[in-house]
């Protein structure tokens, strides 16, 4: 199983003696989002009423999605689907909440916050993926479906087979899956959906991990490791952090994984790593400060 994303506290951004700034960013003109055209499919089946601590799963999902919407580049086109939120026991309870269009984070947040589970709402993952792919079929370029589910298919459609067929029909489609508070068997099956769909799978067991998984699925993100291999920072590409002087490794996360070694933070000048997406392949350079 893919390890659960974790949040680590960002080091202070106040320069300290013996410290320096590290920035990881895209080259000018390239977006931080992994795709410009994204559809999120939200599980709002009955089990999303279950609680983690004192919060319902659906409320945690609302918060994570709303945070994500504030972080997406303004150039992103976003669609939203949900299932299991209107009728009990109905495998056809799938709704396009917002069609693909330019990001309007406030309007989309308001729509997200109207989605609540129906008692005994079902989990029609396969059919939801089919409908999501149909929503995106006339979009040029790469497109991405991101499914957030706290359970597996229960509507007699094989979502693994469906994901593979959709990927074969449109090789520019990728399907990411986030398993939210699922057991190991369900995690394995949801992982198989993502693999068949040419995407990535993420386990999330709490609010912080769900937010991190959404960022990692949709936004290019990275983490910084010190000389001992300890994670000292994790953030979205485009962010900066202040670190003690030393040599660090950087891992760009997600399907476009990239590892960089011996990135020096010397405290004399900002350390900058620029990422360049060349037809889906990430390359990195450390430009010389001007």
TrEMBL record:
It holds the Pfam family VWA. SUPFAM superfamilies: vWA-like. Gene3D superfamilies: von Willebrand factor, type A domain. PROSITE patterns: VWFA (PS50234). Residues 37-218 form the VWFA domain. Residues 1-14 have a biased composition (Pro residues). Residues 1-20 are annotated as: Disordered. This is VWFA domain-containing protein. The lineage of its organism: Bacteria, Bacillati, Chloroflexota, Chloroflexia, Chloroflexales.
């Amino acid at each position: 199983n893919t390890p659960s994303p974790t949040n680590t506290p960002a080091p202070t951004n106040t320069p300290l003696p013996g410290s320096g700034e590290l920035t990881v960013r895209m080259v000018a003109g390239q977006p931080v989002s992994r795709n410009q055209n994204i559809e999120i499919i939200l599980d709002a089946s009955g089990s999303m009423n279950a609680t983690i601590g004192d919060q319902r799963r659906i409320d945690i999902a609302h918060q994570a999605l709303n945070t994500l919407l504030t972080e997406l580049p303004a150039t992103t086109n976003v669609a939203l689907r949900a299932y299991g939120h209107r009728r009990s026991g109905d495998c056809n309870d799938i709704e396009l909440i917002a069609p693909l269009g330019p990001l309007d984070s406030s309007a989309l947040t308001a729509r997200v916050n109207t989605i609540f589970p129906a008692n005994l709402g079902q989990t029609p993952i396969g059919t939801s993926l089919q409908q999501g792919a149909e929503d995106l079929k006339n979009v040029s370029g790469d497109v991405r479906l991101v499914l957030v589910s706290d359970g597996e298919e229960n509507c007699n459609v094989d979502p693994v087979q469906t994901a593979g067929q959709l990927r074969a029909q449109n090789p520019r489609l990728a399907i990411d899956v986030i398993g939210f508070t699922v057991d190991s068997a369900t995690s394995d099956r949801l992982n198989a959906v993502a693999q068949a769909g040419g995407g990535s799978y993420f386990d999330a067991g709490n609010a912080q991990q769900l937010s991190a998984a959404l960022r990692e699925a949709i936004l290019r993100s990275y983490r910084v490791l010190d000389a001992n291999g300890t994670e000292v920072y994790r953030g979205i590409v485009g962010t900066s952090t202040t670190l003690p002087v030393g040599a660090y490794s950087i891992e760009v996360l997600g399907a476009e994984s990239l590892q960089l070694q011996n990135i020096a933070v010397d405290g004399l000048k900002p350390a900058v790593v620029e990422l360049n997406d060349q037809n889906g392949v990430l390359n990195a350079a450390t430009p010389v400060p001007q």
